[in-house]
Specification:
It is a single chain. The protein has about 140 residues and is mostly beta strands. It folds into 2 domains: about 1-35; about 35-140, Sandwich (Jelly Rolls), CATH 2.60.120. About 10% of the residues lie in helices and about 35% in strands. It has 1 helix and 9 strands; from the N terminus they run αβββββββββ. Strands 1-8-3-6 form a 4-stranded antiparallel beta sheet, covered by helices on one side. Strands 5-4-7 form a 3-stranded antiparallel beta sheet, with no helix packed on it. Strands 2-9 form a two-stranded antiparallel ribbon. The longest helix is centred in the N-terminal third of the chain and has 14 residues, at about 1-15. The radius of gyration is 16 Å and the shape is globular. The N and C termini lie far apart (about 40 Å).
Amino acid sequence: MKTTTTLCLLAMGLLFQSNAHALEPSASVKTTTLMKTTSSWDGTPIVYPSGQAEITGLIVEIAPGGETGWHRHPAPSFGMLLEGELEVRLKDGSVKRLKSGDALAEVVNTLHNGHNVGTTPLKLVVFYAGAADQPLSVKETP
C-alpha cells in the first residue's frame, strides 16, 4: 500500500510540477516540484528523440548487491528512488548515489551500470519520454 500511495503522489507531482500551476492552489491542493532540469545528472542537455512520442513508466526492483549491467538509454528518462540505496556508475568513473526519495534525470546514450549498494531490495520508478518502436534500454559491454 505504501508503494501505491507513493506512486500516486509521484504521478500527481509530475502532472502538477510547474511554477505555472495547472490548478489554483488551495487548502486541499499542494504541489511539490521533485525536479526541474534541462540536463541529465552528468550535465548533458536533454534532447527528445524524433518519431511518435511514447511515454513509458516502470518500477525497477534490484536485489541487495544486484546490478543492472552496463546499458544505455536512447531516450530521456526521469526516476525517483522509492526504497533502498542506488549507485549509478558511468564508464568514465563518474558516480551518482541515491537514497530513498531522491530523484534524477537519467543519462541519455551514455553507458552506465546501476548497483544496489544497500542491504534491502530497492525500488526505482522511472518514466521514459521516448518514441514508439524504440527500445528503452540497450545492453552493452564497457
